[in-house]
Structures are given as C-alpha cells and as structure tokens.
Amino acid sequence: MKVSYSWLKKIVAFDFSPQKLADILTELGLEVDSIMPFGQNLDGFVVAKVVDVKLIDESKHLTLCTVDTGTRKYSVVCGAPNVRKGIKSAFAVTGTKLPDGTVISTTKISGYESEGMLCSKKELGIGDDDSGIVVLDSTAGIGEPLASIDDLSDWILEIELTPNRPDCLNMRGVAREIAVALKTSIMDKQRCIIEDKLLNAESIGITIENSELCENYSAYIIRGIKVEPSPFWLAHRLEMLGIRSINNIVDITNYVMMELGHPLHAFDLDKLAGPEIVVRCAKEGEVIETLDGKTRTLDSSMLVIADKIQPVAVAGIMGGASSEVTENTKNILLEGAYFNPVSVRTTARKLGLTSESSYRFERGADRGGFQEALQRAAYMIAGIGNASSRSCLIEHNAKPYSPVKFECSIERIRSLIGVAISDEKIKEIIESLNITILSQTKNTLTVQPASYRVDLSIEQDIAEEIARIYGYNNIPVVLPGSDFVEYAVNKKHQFARFSRNLLVGAGFFETVTCSLHPASTSIQIPSFFSKDGGSTAIPIKNPLSEMHQRLQTTLAPNILAVIENNIRQKSESIKLFELGTIFLPDKITFSHEKSILALGVSGQRELEYWGHSGKNWDFFAFKGVLESFFASLGLNCITFQRTELPYLHSGKTAAIYIKNIPIGYLGQIHPLLSQQRMLKKDTFIAELDVDAILKEMAGDSKYAPLPKYPAIERDLAIVIDSSTPFQHIYNTIMNSMTGLLENFRVISIYEGDPIPPGKKSLSLRMRYRSLEKTLNDRQVDEIHDKMARIVVETLQCSLR
Amino acid sequence: MQDKINQIQQTAEHAVDACTALEEIEQQRVRFLGKKGEVTLLFQHLKNVPVEEKPQAGVLINTLKDHIHNILQLKKERLETAQLEKQLLSESIDVTLPGQNSGFGKIHPLNRTLHELVDIFHSLGFSIAHGPEIETEYYNFDALNIPSYHPARDMQDTFFLENGMVLRTHTSPVQIRVMENKKPPVRIIAPGRVYRNEAINYKSYCLFHQIEGFYVDSAVSFAELKGVLAFVIREFFGKETQFRIRPSYFPFTEPSLECDIMVKGKSGWMEILGAGMIHPQVLKSVGYDPQQVQGYAFGMGIERITMLRYGIDDIRLLYDNDLRFLAQF
C-alpha cells in the first residue's frame, strides 16, 4: 500500500526524513518496500492565471493564451482542450527544465510566438494525466513557485502490509502507528466539517436479510449535488496514492477510504427502484453488470445490495453499472456497511473480481467505527458537491457490535518474550495502542482492543504488541538453553551426505532439477520404478505451464537434459548425480514418495592432457563406479542381470538387485535417443532406490580377521559357451572349494580363432589360501587340479 | 717400518683423493688392501721385525689398514652421492607443467549451504526430520492455523493435486507431523523441497528449498529464538554480519518476525528468514496444551541464503546445472 509522507505529517507531528520514517515503520512491522520521490523536480514552475484565450487553429485545437505570473504577462500557444479563461495552472517560462530533462524554449507555433508552456500533470511528474493542463485550486497564489504548493512535492512510501493489519490500509492507521512509536497522539482535525443548514428528515427503507453476512448497513441521502471533476487537492492526493480520479463524488468515497480505511459506495438515488435497500443473498443465476462493464452471474452464496427489483451492487466488492454516479446524477445514497470477511473473500474469488474495497473487507473492516468514515464522506460530499440537502444517518443495525474482550497473563507474556518487562511498561504499551484495560487482578489483565484492531484476540497477540512496541531489536539475545533434548541421527540425511562425498570424490557433480515434468515425458523415458512407466504420474490441477504438468516418476529425463545442455556448452567430460524424490501414484495413500539416486556420465571418463590421450566411458567403467559405490556403503550382496528399457541400449542395460529385489538399473542410452537428442552415444545412466539401499544398510558389518597364512595364485583357462553369463561362472566357482578358494579374477576374455565359434575363452587367476596353514606348491597344485575338474564338470566347459 | 708405513699412507691418500669413479676406488682398494696389496704385504714383512717391536708394528699396520679403509669408504660415498645427484639432475622435469586432472566433482551449492546449516543446527542439538512433499490441505494449511477462507492462503500460490492434496508450500507441515507423534520437548529441523505456483524468472522459481526449525518445551522464549537466529547467522555468514528482526505476520506464529541481515561490505538489508512463537492454535491442533508448553519455529529459504552468499543474481542458474556454474563452488 502507498502512503504519502507529507500527508502523514499532517496527521501526526514528526520532522524526520522519509528514510527515517521508513525505518520506524519497518521496525513496527509495516515493512517499507520503497521510497519514491513525487513531484520533487518543480524548480522554475510557477502558478499562473490564464487571463485570455484566443482560438488560433480550430483543427489542431490550438489556442493563444495570455498568462499572468503576477510580475508580467506571457503569450503561450496551448493545445490543451481544458484551457479556459480564469483558471490557474502551472507555467514553465522559457528556460525551465521539465522533470524529463526537456528545456522549454521560445518557439513559433502556427505563426505565433510561445514564451513558455502550460503543463499537464504528466509533464510535471505528478501524475499520469496528460489529457490537459493542470487546473490548480482557485486559492493558489499567482506567481508562487509550484514547489511551495501544499503536498505537491512529496515522497511516496510503498508498504508491504501483512494481511493481519487491515487497520493500517489507510493514512490514519499508519499515522496511529507512528504516534505510538513516538509516544505522541494523532491530530484528528478534519478538513471540512461544515455545520449543516442542509439537514432534512428524509429516510429510506433498509432491510438486512442475513445479519451474519451484514451486521450493519448505514447510509446518507444527499440531494442536489453537482457531479464535476474534483478540486485539484483532492484528485492530487488520490493520484499520489495510485488511485485514478473519476469525479468529485466517487473521489470523496475513495479519499475517505484512503484516509480512514473504510470502503464506501455512492449510488445514484434516482436509479434505485423503490427507492429502497435490501441486503440479501443473490438468487441463483441472478445477473448484474458491475462498474467495470462486465456482466456477472451470481449464485445464492453471494451477498448483494439490491433495490426493490434487482441487485445494484455486489456487497463490499463493486457497485452495479445501473446505479452508477454520473455527471447527470443529482441525488445520491451514500453507503457505509460492515460485511463478513469470509463472505466477501469467497464471493470475490468466485467472481474473479477484487477491488480496493474487497481487499479491505476480506481482511476485516472496522465494524465498530466505520460510521465515522461514512459521516465524514457525507459532510465532504455535501460541501464539495454543493448539496442542497442531506439526511441524518439512516441505519439498520441488524447485529449490534460487541467489542472483543479477553484475558491475558502478564507472567505468560513475559515468559513468551523472555524479557522482564515491568508491569507498568506493559500497561503503558497496551494503553498507547488504544487497548482498554477493563480490569486487572495481580497477574491477569482483561483487555478490549479498539474495534479497528481485528487482529487482536488472544494473549499471544498482546505479547506481540508488547514486543513490537518495546522494540524487537531491544529484546536481548539469549543463548539457547542447555536443556538436553533427545537427539536422533537421520539416516537418510547421513546417507545423502556420505553419497555426495563419495561421488564428488569420484569426479561427479551434483545437480538439482525440477520435479515437475511435461505429461509427454513418460512416453520417451518411462520410469523404471513405476509399474506403468509413469503414464499415470500424478497431475497438477493448475500447472504453471505444459512443461510442469506432472510429478516426476524418474530422474532420468532430467539427468539426460542436463547432459544435453552441457554438451551444448561443449563440455568434454560429464559426470553427474542427483538425489531426488519421485512420486508414484498409490491407490490407498495417494502417492508413494521414493528417494532416488541417479547418475549419468557422458564423453570422456579421463580427460586427455599433454602426453596422454583421454578415455571414453564404457559400460564396465560405469558399472565399476557403481560397484565401488556399493562397496563403500558396505553392500556386498549386489547382483546385475540383463534387462531392457525403451530408452536404453537393449544389449547394454542391467537391472541391479539386492538379494533378488530390483533396486535400480544402469545402461547405455539407446542409439536412436542419442541421435534424436544432442547426446553422445557413450552416455550412460543409472538410477538407484535409496530407500531399498538404506534398508539393506541397516546393520553394521562385522570385522573379518586378517589372514595369517600366505595366498598362492594359479591361472585357469577355460573355453565355454559365449552365452554363459559371467555371473553364472562366478557363482559356480565361488561355491566350489570354499575355505580354500579366496577369490578369483578375470585376466582376459577372448573370442575368435582358434577358439571355436559360439565359444569364448576365459583366463582366470585363482587365489587360494588356507585359514589353518601355509599351503605348499604341491598342495596348491592338488587343490587347483581339483578345482579345474569341478569347473569343467559343473560349467560344461573345457580347459585350454 | 715406520717410514714404510708413512710412505704407503701418503701414497694411498693421494691415490684415493685422485679417484673420480667408483671403479677406481675398487682398484685402489685392491692395490692397498687386496690379497697382494701393499698393506697386506706389510703384514707379511712383520715376521722380519724384531720380536720386541712386533706388537707396536702390528698396531701401526692395523691403524694404517683402517685408515685406508676409511678414506676409501668416504671417497666412495662422496662419489656415489655425486653420481646420484647427477642422475637426479638429468631426470628433472618442468614442474610448472599442469598436472593430470583427477577431476573431483562438486556438491551442488544449495546442498553445500544445507550441509553447513545442518551442521550449525546439529551443534545446537537439533535433530533432522523429513516429511512428504505431497501434503493434505490439512497439514499444509488448516493445522497451521490457515483456514480456507483466510487471506493468508493467498500469500502462497499453491499447486493443487487431485483428492484435495497439494504440493507443500512450506516445510511447516513437518512441524505438525513431528509434534503429533512426539511429546515435548522437541527440537527439530526439517529441510526439504517446497513448491509455489509462481512464474519462473530471475528471482522466482516454481520450487525451492527450506529449512524449518522448531523447539517446544515448557519455557522457550522469543529472546531465545533471537539467540538461536543470531548464532546461526554469525556462524554461517561470519561474525561481522549485522542482523535485525522486525515484526511480521504468519498465521502459525504469534508473535512473528522476519529477519534481515547486512553482510559486511554490502549496503542494504536482505530478508533471510521468518520466525515466531508457535501459535497456540497450532499447538492445540497437535494435542499440546498451550498453557503448559510454548515454543518457537523458523523457516528459511536455502536458495535465498545461497544466492546472497555467493552473489548469484538469477535463481534459474541453480536449476540449470551448467557445469561451468557448478564448478565454481
């Protein structure tokens, strides 16, 4: 919300700078977002009276005006449609610099010399209006510098107001806060209270059908007004705060709203059928054209103001076009009411229609004090609008306001804040905020906040008020107590940290990507973890864009996208991992959130450097990373089996198992995908189910004693069917001669001449060790021969 | 005899001194100490020496033998050292050539921030809890004192899912989930990903990360909250970082605050977190008695803190994962 620095100064006395004011407001919880100069470049402009106007070019609406600045008269050519004899306007003599930097020079226009310029608000930098020249109040002194005119040079503070403080959505509310901070009070004098000779005894029927939605509806009838443009000062104050000036009547309702906070509405009385006012819920399907020119269909939950026949306003949100105040309006009904915040909010949301009025009502208006604003507006309209008569307050009070009262414990307030603020100080702060202390026992205060403080209803609210006025920054910093609270290590966090450190050490960069995907993702890259590949991934009802329609069921698309982006940036070596969450739809729990670790590599595994060539990634290099990772986690029950995924190379993809449960996969991307996308063919990807890994990691592994006796190695070469997977050979061999065979490794694999087609030759280096004694050569030879026989028999292979 | 010994000693000293290679040392050893060497021959001459002089002559010859042995050894070591130095010199390389890139990776800057913050909170005795990213409206809003008609719901643009579920807009639901299952005292932080339906531009993204923290016990105070925040800010941003707190509003805390910091060398306050004393309505919703317990809660955005710390001016960089960017942290 915007507030005016100079206007505030008229309500509460202070003499510090706008910046200091902003600091004070921010410390009070009214955070000032920006301070903008307004009309701060008015040097050289003076008030001038237009003393003569001659039309010189009808087609261009050009006039030759004579303006009087008191010291001399100037000839000025003016194109403004609103220039007329007798008005006072802003004059820039030749040589004056406009706020936009233009310097006024003497020029000839249509053959007439122009010795300066009459300026619009836009040219002066005091508004957006460039439809005509400024028309100053008739009281403005001829020849006076424009800068000396009240309010014209100002600072506008933009306050980011929290939704609990509707009482500060106006100048007086903000001024009240300043007054509390300065330990002073606001000046409540009003600009145009006129004693009424106009009073009449007129009334109008007001019916409230639902007192929950509208507690009180009050009005004035004002007759014989003249609707015209607002006086300069009035329009100016609204425009400063970003509100467009419409006409004197509408402007006064807006002015009072900005000044005192309560939204008001003026109806053209003669267009109200009856005339009478019925505050009721709309009939289902009832239609109203609102002031913004749109036709809106209402439902029975929406509160409207109706006349005898039809709705004439959506209560608290916007008036109807049929009863709009226009330049022909003579008589008005001025409305001031209290509408239920939830009702206003719900209706505004349903209609997709918000206004300054609804913004205030839905946050909570001053239900106990709004009639002051209504009365003020009525007086101003009667005065500024030159009314011929005005009624007394007409009121239907359907549900009398009862002030909020509650108890608060001084001890608890002190305990919450943690500072020993004295009883006296607490009471002083409470009273400075217009919170009445109704009664008091030793430790308990019964308080009644002012009606505009809709945010105060419990003890903690009072604690905040005390802390706020005492000063948040005056509360001492107390170091956290040493009370022991049961502490638990979080396994998932620990795992994440450990994994990050391992993978970073192995050269991998961590990525963080968006978990919202386009709906089409599952077609190209279906999820390994979802039974349907992610085609039923959870949709978002109100997605930000087509790119963000569904929750991810796999991290693979993002890993590939990041690889692709980095290839575009000419990265030679890409090693990535991400720890993320996938969302699998679940009939019972709606969704199952799974933690996934994804890895992706592409391009060079080892970068080339002088004297050495680089090495590209291949399946086994990537698998080796995963195996080392599992080994570091202490997982030794991992196995791999061929599998297929649509986006991976069908011959180079493996599912990863822990004890026969699949926990993820690794593989090379499909050559077609690498062609479609800007991906290199040696791009590999893996995804692992972190929850499954954590489950397996539950226990600590136990220490195995170091061997006391030496190991001896012997090589074994076998020829076996090419199709026999190594895993089978491994299992067979490791299950033979247990206790003597420690392990073995593959030295070479060979296919081709002289090995027969369909066969492969494997050289294995067997490592034997006894736990009981040192084996001598003869013993090892015997063991090795036996091993060879078992291998030949069980694997149906031959020795070479 | 004495003359003979002196003469051999002098000859030997000269000869050894003149050696320039290890082979020459060996030649000299053979010449003096070998089976037919000059010193060995002296021992043979000993039989010609009168009996009474024999012991003394024996001592002299032995001393000569030891002496020659020692100078040979010394010279040998000197030559070996010289030879090794020469070899090493010939093997010297240009140490200023670049090394082979062993290619360590990097932890993402967001998680770097997260780890550091978690360490600081661990040192204060906070445990970690996690909660789901898909939440019910109850946990995300209602239990946190944000009823459906409340204007505060507008403060957070929400992604809605089917069945009345939402993507959590903050980590505060974890507060509720933890407190529902645990009696006070509880002292927890809850890091995690949250979502907002906001247009993507340089300062906002459709998701970000938060750390929620809260502590509930019998007499936890606002002043203590301030102490925790001051500690965390100074530990993380450095001792010279100034901070201020100002009143604010969150439906789930009362009193509420927002905290700004001014990093050394920068002008202007930057908002980094929101906090407050947990609203009694929130305590009631988890079955705590607000007359018996009270506590504070805070929430901070990891993106904002990371950007502030590293001077990152576009939030999208954090999700683009350009290696040239990631390598900088």
Helix and strand topology:
The complex is a heterodimer of chains A (800) and B (329).
Chain A: E1 2-4, H1 5-11, H2 18-27, E2 31-38, E3 45-57, E4 62-68, E5 73-78, E6 88-93, E7 107-109, E8 112-114, E9 116-118, H3 121-124, E10 154-160, H4 171-181, E11 199-200, E12 205-208, E13 214-223, H5 232-240, H6 248-260, E14 265-268, E15 276-281, E16 287-289, E17 295-297, E18 303-306, E19 311-314, E20 318-319, E21 332-339, H7 341-351, H8 356-363, H9 370-384, E22 389-391, E23 394-397, E24 406-409, H10 410-417, H11 423-432, E25 436-440, E26 444-448, H12 459-470, H13 491-505, E27 509-510, E28 516-517, H14 521-524, E29 550-551, H15 556-568, E30 573-586, E31 590-606, E32 615-616, H16 619-632, E33 638-642, E34 648-658, E35 661-669, H17 671-676, E36 683-689, H18 690-696, E37 712-721, H19 726-734, E38 741-750, E39 759-768, H20 777-795, E40 798-799
Helix pairs in contact in A: 1-4, 5-6, 6-9, 7-8, 10-12
Chain B: H1 2-18, H2 22-33, H3 38-45, H4 54-90, H5 109-123, E1 127-128, E2 134-136, H6 137-140, E3 165-167, H7 173-181, E4 186-195, E5 207-217, H8 222-237, E6 242-250, E7 253-262, E8 270-278, H9 280-285, E9 294-301, H10 302-310, H11 317-320, H12 323-326
Parallel strand pairs in B: 1-4
Antiparallel strand pairs in B: 2-3, 4-5, 5-9, 6-7, 7-8, 8-9
Outline:
Chain A has 800 residues and is an alpha+beta fold. Chain A is 26% helix and 29% strand. In chain A, strand 18 (303-306) and strand 19 form a beta hairpin.
